[in-house]
Task: structure prediction
Amino acid sequence: MMIGVLTSGGDAPGMNATIRAVVRASEGYNHQVYGIRNGYRGLIEDDMVLLDHQSVSGMLSKGGTFLGTDRVPEFLDESVRQKGVDNLKKRGIEALITIGGDGTYKGANALSRMGVKTIALPGTIDNDIAGTDYTIGFHSAVETIVDAIDKLRDTSQSHRRCSIIETMGRKCGDLALFSGICGGAEFIITPENPIDKEAIIERLKKHKKEGRRHAIIVITEKILDVYELAKEITEQSGFASRATVLGYIQRGGSPAPADRILASRMGAYAVELISDDIHGVCVGERDSRMIHLPYANVIGQTRPKNAIYKLIKKVS
Ligand code: F6P
Result:
């Protein structure tokens, strides 16, 4: 069988490891794999390359995605998608494995309705995909954020400051939640755990009285202007505050071991599913086991609030 693989949306550490797993697992079934460049754009533009054992050598530890990625809003248009379907047919590609976030899943679902055998794998640092406990890239991004928090604590302590750290994550607070717990943050503000400014100000006033030298606030992006928040906290609590927006650094770097394992398992599982003629599904990890669910159960669904939110009150 001829299988296509692409990465789409925001890149995530572990995407390369996933492509590698797809290629290596396919060898066992004698499938041939085409790498499609720059997400759905490569599908439309017929920009594809045959991948073999050697083409993915050394990819396990590499950040980013060597196939490239893109956000392709025009893919919502059926006539544009048809070009992609025609290009797949022309090359004899029967099945497509897509690695990305919610937008990628929507594209895979739409292609599946047009007769392409698709499987979607969760590749995003945000951990915002329903139907899986973890997405590929999340653990690596948490590691990067925790490293930044540790460094920011050093300088905050030296200067007796409160450090506000903004993470990515869009509508999902898991990056802030996990890194905040790992980094010993006093406050973790996420879409699921809204800000209580009064409580922050009161606690920081108390901190100051007690002679504490630093405080850490971790907050998900797009909630508020963190520079403004730093100003308000400084003025109202007397505890000097500084904000740091971590930005795209969170998406780069070599994947953490947990992501390498997840990527390898999910890539191999997707090939297994396709070989069993199972498609039109998304792959996930639930309680350490590989699962697959229909697109309808996952796309646009909100993940339940993470159980570790309970930890915030206990340990922060
Ligand atoms: O989806 C991953 C993500 O990194 C989000 O956390 C962030 O909001 C977004 O991508 C940024 O996207 P772009 O690369 O289009 O600026």
Observations:
- The chain has a mean pLDDT of 97.
- The two ends are 53 Å apart (CA to CA).
